[in-house]
Sequence to fold (187 residues):
Amino acid sequence: MILLNLFLGFLYVGCFSFGGAYAAIPLIRDVVLQNGWINDDKLSYMIAISESTPGPIMVNLATYIGTDQAGVLGALTATFAVILPAFLIIIAIMVLLKNSFENKYIQAMLGGMKPSISGIIMGIGLYMIFQNCNVLKSVNDLNIRSLIITLLLIAIYYGSRKLFQKGLTPIKLIIISAITGIIAYSI
Fold:
């Protein structure tokens, strides 16, 4: 039964997550929490780990949750389910719409989707910042270390864009965040 639930849950995620992995995080979060597969804190840690490991976040999350719930077979089931819709959609698009990308209506539709995807990504990013700094629970429980690290990383990223005309790569930011985390939490 768990394999069927994993398949259907991640098939749903794969079918309705537009805009890449970051835009899919709220959908993954909803499916995972509704099914009680892992809790919100563990999911937040897994998102961070999935971000820093090779491969798409959606696939990494599906594989991890599938493994956590049903071992290797669960990992294969969840991973297959999450990539199946994208695979079929890309095949269908290439076959059916091969020459339609020049159509002004298709271009308008894609142009209209960009701002909504940006908003979804920004929303989940802010949610994760607030949750990580405990702002959502209460101001009295504010995690000052997490807040300082977050603000420092934002300053480093945008400062590097101003100084070097190019932002730091995600790998460099992950390394910097790991070092600042070690420093901040080992004191």
Remarks:
- The helical segments are 2-16, 21-35, 40-52, 57-96, 104-132, 144-164, 170-186.
- The chain is about 80% helix and 0% strand.
